[in-house]
Structures are given as structure tokens and as C-alpha cells.
């Protein structure tokens, strides 16, 4: 694939974009709760630093990044693999409207009315890379579309960065191989902002926040949460075995924790719920 | 000369009386069979003629008319062979038939009396109608003898029957089959002791058994869903006499009763393949419907593996039986009602490829594909399943080690105890409690109520979901022998949901 044609994009919303740095946040359509929390936090923090968050309006990481940017009160751009009048997946209709309402844009290289087609998405990923200064891969398994975006960024001489994950998680295999090959390490928005070279232009300076990604865990009264990961789901049976408790009791306690928002269902098991820190100092 | 012999035709678990009249009159040698006989009954003419000749009896060389009354009822099957032959023989010999007696059986050309389906059902019905004696194929005598107060004459050949009727040669009546409750050993063929890990699913199985709840298991291929389901009959109490009798009747209709052991105390376990047709699952067939898998599973377990692969229309048809415990099927020959009160155990993969949520293998399905797959399950059927549990694959080294789980016997004890509590309290199992009775019989302590309400508010629980959790909590408390439903019971009950499947 070659240099995408940015002159003839179809656009809804604000265009051309204000001259501000643009960062693409991409990753799996089915992320772990960890990946989702990271994407949302990064989106929000970058938006606060006056960065335009670019992503693909897909499920999972993309949606979390857009949402984070909106929460952070910033501009966000959805680069679509369909016509700009065809929101895919349809469940993101509301999200697309919020992006427009917040002054962002939906853009696409495909003419209006283009329906989702598998072969269109790689080209969209190239456009996304071309539109951004930095591409951050949050969670990408082997063969993930996010790796196509990273590839395009390398070819287009853009900066590629990646967020590390658990070595046990299949969803981080792609991100880790990018890091091994020299991608920049992202532990917080500050790492990204540093690469952009914004320095003093940062409005809400994430540099001042020692709490990095700023997640808070709820107090762990039962000692159950300590046995849960935020990436890989553990079943009630796994925990019951570790704590030597009857499974019925553990199941009940997990339900209570779920009611308090401390744990979440993920697949057939449970993960620790990640919560944004209250107000970050 | 005229002779008339009684028999009956099955219609579901009931029957219709058929009077077989034979008349021989002067005229050309001819054999008329009248009275709306279907092909299988018309063929009786040839079987009966041969059987009579080969039994050393004379076939009337005159004009012979056999009438099957009532003439409006369509006659199917071969059970009328014996009564037809007996009526003809009696006409020929000028003897009156025995009073209050009925005959059932198919004839072979040499005069041997062969097995027919549904003898137990027929015998029960004849007894109800005031008959005192029934002549049945020797092979089916044991099942007929389950019906008390009825003399059962086992017939091996036409010659023997005629000799008995004409010359009073004695055929010893079948001794009544005494129902002896036995703690059979077959049920433990699949024992929970053999299940590795799976504590959550085991517990769900126990709760399901304890309250008669339906259960859905979701997990990757090879996670052990089938093994778990097969363990279920082994932790259920043995059948009650009335239940065993009902099971035997269904099996009798299908010709599936062992002649040496007509009453079986093991709860049925039926596992139809997902390609099963509507008629196969619900019941069907030409004329009058025969019972399907759901009726064969009555008082036992119906296991539907790969639930999403079943035809949607077939699953839809499960709704009525799940609600009422009965199924009524109308065919050209009329409507029949069969019992269908079973525990549904369903199993499904989490996604089309089966590996979503599996720790070791990657799922290759797109989110929309998974969505569509799970949507196939959602709706009215899932609404009626009280317990839903994820089953995770057990690691290989755990499989290689000795399983450490509790065996079925103590689980069964707890289940039997919990069920007894329920039957004494409310006359039915918790799964059958309607909301009104639930309010009346299953008091929640204030903390438990608060928790359930909080959950309903926060997670948007439907009314059905609310009552599902309540019912399951009742069973959890019963398994513990606790009268009040405490918060921990509600919390456990709320845990039996699936993240992915709309519930």
C-alpha cells in the first residue's frame, strides 16, 4: 500500500482540523478490561493535553479512546472504513453523534453509502496512520488490524508506541513485539506527549500527576480481589481453590463485590474492575 | 354363526375400545374385513388366514365377514391380529367368547403370538374400563402385570389360546409384577467423583437437582459439559412409583420396555442430537402422535448439547412443555397429551468456534458473529432456565492427576433432603413455584431483600430474572436446611448468570 490520498477525504463535522498534534489510539475489538481502561484513560489525558485523538470507531479499544477523549473535553476524529453516513457498528451511532457534537469529525476515504467490507479496513488503517503524528497500540493480539496501522505508521515515518500488558495475555502479544522492535513505551499520557515534543504547550499537564494512569482499587475486604487479575478472568472455582472456601460462598462474595463495582464479569470468570481515580491531583 | 371379541387401540396414554365381530354365513368362500382398517390392519387378513391354518384349525370355507367396530375409528397396527383370529376360530367352533376379557397381539404365519407396543398402556386402560382379563403376547406379559387387579394371560401361540378357550386347557396367568424399589447401581455409572475440578459447575448441578431447576452450561469444547450433565441422574432421587409407572407407559408405547424389568427406577436421561426434528423432540408421526424425546425424558433429564445448533422452531416448541409439564400434539388422527416434565440441561459453546474466553486458545470469531450466535439462544427459552454457569477447560496436568471431587452419593443425599423439604412445604419443587407462591413460601430476610432489589436496580433485572434468582436462592437455602433465605443465598443465586448470554 502506498501513501493514502488525504486530499479527497469524505468528511462530516469539523474540517480541516485545527493545527494540533494528532495521536491515533488503536487496538483489539475485544480488549480486556485493562486494555479498555487504558484506552479510555489515555484518550482522556491526551485530550486534556490538547491532543486530537484519532481512532476507528470500532468496538473495544477504538470506542474507549473516543469516549475518553470526549470525557476529557477534547476533539476526536473517527476514521471510518465505511461511508461517513454509514455508522458501523450500528451500536456506535450515539458515539458518532457525540463526536460530531463535541466538534470532532468523521472522515472516510470511501464514498457515501459504502457498506462495511472486510477488504476496506486495512486501507482505512493506512489513512488513520497518515492522519496522525503518533500511533499508540493499546492491546493487539497476533494478526490484529491495529498492527496494520502500526505497520503503515512505520512506512509513513510516523512514531509508533505501544502499551505493555501481561505476558500471559494473548491480547498483548502484538504490542510486546512492537516494543521489542523499538516502539516507544507508553505508561501514561506523559510518555506520548514527550514524543510529540509539546513541552510547555500542554494545558492540563499530565507531568504533574504522579499517579500515572491513575487507577484506584476499592478496599478488598474479603481478600478475594487480591486474587483477581485485571486482564485474565478467573472463575469462582479458581478462587475457591486458592482460598480453600466452598465455591457457593465465593460465588456469593464475588456477586457482592460485583454489586459494589469492585469486580466485573469477563467471559466465564471475573476480573478486577479498574476505576478511574477520583480527581487526579 | 357370530362371535364378538374385545380389543382396544391406543390413543396416546388412553385407548379406544374395538369390538371385533366375526360372522360366517352361507355363500362363496370369501373373507371380508370391514370397519375402516388401515393397510397394516388389512394385511391382518393374510396373517390370520395362515396362522389359523398353521395352528391346526379349520378356516371357514364359507362367506366370512369380520367387522371392526366402531366403524368410524381408523384402525392401525397389528395388535388386532389376535382378536380377529380368536373371533374367527370361535365362530367356526360355535363357542362364546369369555366375558370381561380383551385380546391384544400380532400373529406370525405359524400362529405364534408376537410382541406389540403399548401393552402396559392398554392394560391400564382396560382395567379402568372394568375388564378383568387380558390376553397379551407372552413377551409383554410382565409389563401388563404391572397393572394390579387384572388377570394377565400370556399367549405364545394362537393354538394355545384357542385350546384354552374351547377346551379349557390351562394357561397359567402371569404373576403380578411387584414394584420393588431398588437403589440401582446403573445411575452411578457417571459419578461426580470422576469429574476433575469444575467446582462451580458441580455446585450449579447440585442446586439444579435440589430444586428441579433447568440449567445452561456454556464453555469451550472438551470442557466437560457432557460429563457433568450425565452425572445429573446419579444425584437425583430414584423415581417414585407413580413416576416410574408414567415413564414405563411412555416407553411401552414406543416398544422400549425390557420384558425382564418393566419398571426402572433410574431417572431417564435423553440426549437427542441437535439435528433432531420437531416430531422427534416434541412428538409426532402419522395418524396419532407418538411421544418424542421430551416425553421420554419425563421425570428425568433432557440434555440438549450444542443448543445454538438446534433449529429455532424446534426450540420454540419447548416453551409450552417447559411451562406446563405436558405437551399436546394434534395430528390427523386426533390430539393426544403426553407428560413432559423434565429437567432441561442445555450446553453451548460461547461462540461459533468455541474458544471465546478460553485461556489457552484464541477465538477467531468476529464480535458480530458472536453476537448473532448468542442471539440465537436468547429470549423465551433462556428466560425459563434458572441457572446459567460457565464451564472452563481443565488444564492437562490437572486431568492427569487423581480427581479430588466429592462423589455423587453425598450430593444425592443433600438433594434428596432438600427436595423432601420442598415437597412437604409446598407439594412441588422450587422450580415450579410461581411468583405468588414464592412470596408466600420463600420469605427473604430484610438484608437479602435489599440486596436483591439493589441488584435489580443496578443491573436492570427483569421481573422474570428477579423471580429466577429468588427461586434459586430458595433452593440454596433448602440445601442448607435453612428456613429463611439469607443474603448469602441471594448472592449465590445471582452468581448463576452468564456474562455473554443475555440473561
Please render the helix and strand layout as text:
The complex is a heterodimer of chains A (281) and B (503).
Chain A: E1 10-13, E2 22-26, H1 33-48, E3 52-55, H2 61-71, E4 76-80, H3 93-101, E5 105-108, H4 120-131, E6 134-137, H5 145-155, E7 159-162, H6 173-180, E8 184-185, H7 189-196, E9 215-216, H8 236-243, H9 247-260, E10 263-266, E11 269-272, E12 275-276
Parallel strand pairs in A: 2-3, 2-6, 3-4, 4-5, 6-7, 7-8
Antiparallel strand pairs in A: 1-5, 9-12, 10-11
Chain B: E1 2-11, E2 14-25, E3 30-34, H1 39-42, H2 44-54, E4 63-69, H3 81-93, E5 101-103, E6 106-107, E7 113-114, H4 119-128, E8 133-137, H5 141-144, E9 151-155, H6 158-167, H7 199-211, E10 215-219, H8 225-231, H9 241-253, E11 269-270, H10 278-282, E12 283-284, E13 290-291, H11 293-296, E14 301-304, H12 312-316, H13 319-324, E15 326-331, E16 334-339, E17 343-348, H14 367-375, H15 380-383, E18 387-391, H16 396-400, H17 408-426, H18 435-441, H19 446-459, H20 463-480, H21 487-495
Parallel strand pairs in B: 3-4, 5-8, 8-9, 10-17, 10-18, 11-14, 14-17
Antiparallel strand pairs in B: 1-2, 2-4, 6-7, 12-13, 15-16
Helix pairs in contact in B: 2-3, 3-6, 7-17, 7-20, 17-20, 19-21, 20-21
Residue share in helices of chain B? Answer: 25-40%
Shape of chain B: elongated
What's the pLDDT, averaged over the residues of chain B? 88
Structural class of chain A: alpha/beta
Mean pLDDT of chain A: 85
Task: Characterise this structure.
The complex is a heterodimer of chains A (281) and B (503). Chain A folds into two domains: 10-208, Rossmann fold; 215-276, Winged helix-like DNA-binding domain superfamily/Winged helix DNA-binding domain (Arc Repressor Mutant, subunit A, Orthogonal Bundle). Helices cover 35% and strands 16% of the residues of chain A. The termini of chain A are far apart. Chain A is elongated and about 65 Å long. Chain A is built from nine helices and twelve strands. With 281 residues, chain A is an alpha/beta fold. In chain A, the strands form three sheets. Chain A has an eight-stranded mixed beta sheet, with helices on both faces. Chain A has a two-stranded antiparallel sheet with strand order 9-12. Chain A has a two-stranded antiparallel sheet with strand order 10-11. In chain A, strand 2 (22-26), helix 1 and strand 3 form a beta-alpha-beta unit. Chain A has helices at residues 33-48, 61-71, 93-101, 120-131, 145-155, 173-180, 189-196, 236-243, 247-260; strands at 10-13, 22-26, 52-55, 76-80, 105-108, 134-137, 159-162, 184-185, 215-216, 263-266, 269-272, 275-276. By secondary structure, chain B is of the alpha/beta class. Chain B has two domains: 2-167, Ribosomal Protein S5, domain 2 (2-Layer Sandwich); 186-495, P-loop containing nucleotide triphosphate hydrolases (Rossmann fold, 3-Layer(aba) Sandwich). Helices cover 38% and strands 18% of the residues of chain B. Chain B has helices at 39-42, 44-54, 81-93, 119-128, 141-144, 158-167, 199-211, 225-231, 241-253, 278-282, 293-296, 312-316, 319-324, 367-375, 380-383, 396-400, 408-426, 435-441, 446-459, 463-480, 487-495, and strands at 2-11, 14-25, 30-34, 63-69, 101-103, 106-107, 113-114, 133-137, 151-155, 215-219, 269-270, 283-284, 290-291, 301-304, 326-331, 334-339, 343-348, 387-391. In chain B, strand 8, helix 5 and strand 9 (151-155) form a beta-alpha-beta unit. In chain B, helix 2 (44-54) crosses helix 3 and helix 7 (199-211) packs across helix 20. The mean pLDDT of chain B is 88. Chains A and B meet through helix 8 and helix 9 of A and helix 7, helix 19 and helix 21 of B.
Amino acid at each position: 500500500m502506498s501513501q493514502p490520498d488525504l486530499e479527497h477525504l469524505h468528511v462530516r463535522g469539523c474540517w480541516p482540523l485545527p493545527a494540533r498534534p494528532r495521536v491515533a489510539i488503536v487496538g483489539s475489538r475485544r480488549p480486556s478490561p485493562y486494555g479498555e481502561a487504558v484506552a479510555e484513560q489515555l484518550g482522556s489525558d491526551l485530550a486534556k493535553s490538547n491532543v486530537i485523538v484519532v481512532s476507528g470507531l470500532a468496538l473495544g479499544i477504538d470506542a474507549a479512546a473516543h469516549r475518553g477523549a470526549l470525557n476529557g473535553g477534547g476533539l476526536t476524529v473517527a476514521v471510518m472504513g465505511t461511508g461517513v453516513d454509514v455508522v458501523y457498528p450500528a451500536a456506535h451511532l450515539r458515539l458518532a453523534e457525540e463526536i460530531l457534537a463535541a466538534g470532532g469529525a468523521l472522515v472516510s476515504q470511501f464514498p457515501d453509502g459504502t457498506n462495511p467490507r472486510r477488504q476496506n479496513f486495512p486501507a482505512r488503517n493506512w489513512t488513520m496512520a497518515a492522519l496522525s503524528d503518533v500511533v499508540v497500540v493499546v492491546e493487539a493480539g497476533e494478526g490484529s488490524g491495529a498492527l496494520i496501522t502500526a505497520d503503515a505508521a512505520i512506512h509513513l515515518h510516523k512514531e509508533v508506541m505501544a502499551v505493555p500488558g501481561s505476558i500471559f495475555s494473548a491480547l498483548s502479544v502484538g504490542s510486546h513485539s512492537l516494543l521489542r522492535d523499538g516502539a516507544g513505551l507508553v505508561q501514561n499520557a506523559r510518555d506520548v506527549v514527550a514524543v510529540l515534543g509539546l513541552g510547555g504547550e500542554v494545558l492540563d499537564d499530565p507531568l504533574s500527576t504522579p499517579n500515572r494512569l491513575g487507577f484506584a482499587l476499592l478496599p478488598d475486604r474479603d481478600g478475594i480481589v487480591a486474587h483477581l487479575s485485571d486482564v485474565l478472568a478467573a472463575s469462582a472455582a479458581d478462587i475457591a481453590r486458592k482460598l480453600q472456601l466452598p465455591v457457593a460462598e465465593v460465588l456469593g462474595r464475588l456477586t457482592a463485590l460485583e454489586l459494589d463495582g469492585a469486580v466485573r464479569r469477563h467471559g466465564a470468570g471475573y476480573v478486577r474492575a479498574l476505576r478511574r481515580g477520583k480527581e487526579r491531583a | 354363526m357370530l362371535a364378538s371379541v374385545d380389543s382396544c387401540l391406543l390413543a396416546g396414554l388412553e385407548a379406544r375400545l374395538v369390538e371385533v365381530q366375526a360372522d360366517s354365513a352361507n355363500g362363496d368362500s370369501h373373507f371380508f374385513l370391514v370397519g375402516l382398517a388401515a393397510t397394516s390392519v388389512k394385511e391382518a387378513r393374510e396373517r390370520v388366514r395362515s396362522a389359523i391354518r398353521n395352528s391346526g384349525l379349520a378356516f371357514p370355507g364359507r362367506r366370512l365377514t369380520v367387522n371392526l367396530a366402531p366403524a368410524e375409528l381408523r384402525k392401525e397396527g397389528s395388535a388386532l391380529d389376535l382378536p380377529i383370529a380368536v373371533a374367527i376360530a370361535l365362530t367356526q367352533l360355535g363357542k362364546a367368547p369369555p366375558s370381561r376379557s380383551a385380546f391384544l397381539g400380532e400373529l406370525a404365519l405359524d400362529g405364534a403370538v408376537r410382541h406389540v407396543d403399548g401393552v402396559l398402556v392398554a392394560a391400564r386402560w382396560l382395567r379402568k374400563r372394568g375388564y378383568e382379563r387380558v390376553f397379551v403376547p407372552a413377551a409383554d406379559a410382565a409389563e401388563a402385570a404391572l397393572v394390579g387387579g387384572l388377570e394377565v394371560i400370556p399367549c405364545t401361540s394362537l393354538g394355545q389360546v384357542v385350546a384354552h378357550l374351547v377346551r379349557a386347557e390351562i394357561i397359567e396367568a402371569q404373576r403380578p409384577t411387584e414394584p420393588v424399589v431398588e437403589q440401582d447401581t446403573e445411575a452411578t455409572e457417571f459419578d461426580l467423583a470422576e469429574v476433575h475440578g469444575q467446582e462451580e459447575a458441580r455446585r450449579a448441578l447440585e442446586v439444579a437437582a435440589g430444586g428441579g431447576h433447568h440449567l445452561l452450561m456454556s464453555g469451550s469444547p472438551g470442557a466437560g459439559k457432557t460429563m457433568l450433565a450425565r452425572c445429573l441422574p446419579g444425584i437425583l432421587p430414584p423415581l417414585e412409583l407413580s413416576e416410574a409407572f408414567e415413564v414405563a407407559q411412555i416407553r411401552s408405547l414406543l416398544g422400549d420396555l425390557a420384558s425382564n424389568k418393566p419398571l426402572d427406577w433410574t431417572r431417564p436421561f435423553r440426549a437427542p442430537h441437535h439435528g433432531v426434528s420437531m416430531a422427534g423432540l416434541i412428538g409426532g408421526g402419522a395418524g396419532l402422535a407418538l411421544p418424542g424425546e421430551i416425553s421420554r425424558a419425563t421425570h428425568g433429564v433432557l440434555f440438549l448439547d450444542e443448543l445454538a445448533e438446534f433449529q429455532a422452531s424446534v426450540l420454540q416448541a419447548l416453551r409450552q412443555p417447559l411451562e406446563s409439564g405436558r405437551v399436546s400434539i394434534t395430528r390427523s388422527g386426533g390430539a393426544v397429551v403426553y407428560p413432559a416434565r423434565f429437567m432441561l440441561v442445555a450446553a453451548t459453546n460461547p461462540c461459533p468456534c468455541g474458544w471465546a474466553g478460553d485461556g489457552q486458545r484464541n477465538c477467531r470469531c468476529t464480535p458480530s458473529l458472536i453476537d448473532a450466535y448468542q442471539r440465537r439462544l436468547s429470549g423465551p427459552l433462556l428466560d425459563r432456565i434458572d441457572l446459567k454457569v460457565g464451564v472452563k477447560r481443565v488444564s492437562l496436568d490437572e486431568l492427569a492427576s487423581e480427581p479430588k471431587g466429592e462423589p455423587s452419593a453425598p450430593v444425592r443425599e443433600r438433594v434428596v433432603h432438600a427436595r423432601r423439604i420442598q415437597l412437604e412445604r409446598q407439594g412441588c419443587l422450587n422450580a415450579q413455584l410461581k411468583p405468588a407462591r414464592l412470596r408466600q413460601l420463600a420469605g427473604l430476610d430484610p438484608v437479602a431483600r435489599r440486596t436483591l432489589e439493589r441488584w435489580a436496580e443496578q443491573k436492570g433485572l427483569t421481573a422474570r430474572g428477579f423471580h429466577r434468582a429468588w427461586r434459586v436462592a430458595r433452593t440454596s437455602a433448602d440445601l442448607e436446611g435453612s428456613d429463611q433465605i439469607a443474603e448469602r443465598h441471594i448472592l449465590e443465586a445471582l452468581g448463576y448468570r452468564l456474562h455473554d448470554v443475555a440473561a
